[in-house]
Fold this sequence. Notes:
Layout: H1 3-16, H2 24-29, E1 34-38, E2 41-44, E3 49-52, H3 55-58, H4 67-79, H5 91-103, E4 108-114, H6 117-134, E5 142-146, H7 155-160, H8 164-168, E6 179-180, H9 200-212, E7 217-222, H10 239-249, E8 253-257, E9 281-284, E10 296-301, H11 302-311, H12 325-340, H13 343-359, E11 366-371, E12 376-380, H14 396-406, E13 409-410, E14 412-414, E15 425-428, H15 436-457
Parallel strand pairs: 3-13, 5-6, 5-7, 7-8, 8-9
Antiparallel strand pairs: 1-2, 2-3, 4-10, 9-10, 11-12, 12-15, 14-15
Helix pairs in contact: 4-12, 5-12, 6-11, 9-10, 13-15, 14-15
Amino acid sequence: MEKEEAQRIKEADVEYVWHHFCSPRTYAQRPLVVKKAEGCKLYDVDGKEYVDAVSGITAVNVGYGNKKINEAMKRQIDQLSFSTVIYASSPVTALAAKKMASITPAGLEKVWFVSGGSEAVESAIKIARQFHYLRGDRERYRVVSRWMSYHGATLGALSCTGHPIRREVFEPLLIKFPHIVPCYCYRCPFGKEYPGCDLDCARALEYVIKVEGAKSISAFIAEPIVGLTGAGITPPKEYYKIIREVCDRYTILFIADEVLTGFGRTGGMFAIEHYGVKPDIMVVGKGITSGYVPLGAAVAKKEVEEEFEKTNRIFQHGHTFGGHPLACAACVANIDVIVSERLVEKGRETSRYLMKRLLELKHEIIGDIRGKGLLVGVELVRDKKTKKIFRDEENVGSKIAQLALEQGVVIFGTKAFDLGVMSDILYLSPPLTVRKEEIDKIVDVVDKSIGEVERSML
């Protein structure tokens, strides 16, 4: 692309595109307009190459430019460009639902298609509410979630989200959902250490249910492994068994938010599989099509949907584009690629190499490295012994990410959680197809970028 044309495109981007979760002035200083992508590589309008170490936004699990997915979408759009599950269906929508039921934990087989993760969470909240309503428990509507979590930007999903800055402006509009402490072993809210802690963070769920009143609680929602908001926080193996037991004790539905962790991201098809429990509802997005086209879903146990069947009641919810044929074609092809090319297993193997390389880094400001599979967080601290955090205005994470970007590697660097609880973080989630030589470049650039910021601050 000619230099002048590239400049015109960047100017139009800054002038007319309202970027999500992005400071307008900061973005305008260095706009990134991607022209094409292949595998794990991005190419901007200036021709510069980048290794995408975050899979777009933890979405492009199979990598960019997969020909099988591209061809499936081309065939579908030539045959049927639109249908709606409101009063009809399409062959590919039915096939996509069957494919989903074949890879989700046993019993999760009723697929409610939507357009993305926030819509999937909204759907799960409403399913839980109407499920209890049909059973005669008409006071149950509130969903318990955790602080240091993200479940979406729509108002219901934001009510579950445990991220104060994202909630602050909209607090008057939010539902008063209860939150419990996160499972954050690096900075245990109870000042304890695993395994002598007796998993107080999980047992906090029962305490909150008792205090708030079980008769008002419809569900508990959690990311099995916390994404960007908690930078790869990974609960101990017993955590979700306790959660499952508490939910069963009080007839509360357990919703696993796998929007970010699903489809091989953590070394299993879904992250909850690492814990040997089954949710009542699973919400998915992002990796369901590897980001090739928007799609999300709430996948419920048959027993949940049966409450609607018994009374022949309509689930009072829906979207025009639910089960869109083009998105479902991408979903089917995406799942076929993940399974046939053994990308879950390959990603698991590659993730061990990524973690090995990261653990070799020697920097005073690295406090913790955590995560599972190809979802990894690096927490940055001013002092390793005291775990003292950096001040907000120091922008340590974002400075490192900017330096990495200048060297051709896209990572996230930010203050993941606020209120002086968590320090700055770096977040990595490359595609499952990432190669070792690309991991080497990612880690080498991260190493260099951390070192440069470290020298300027300590």
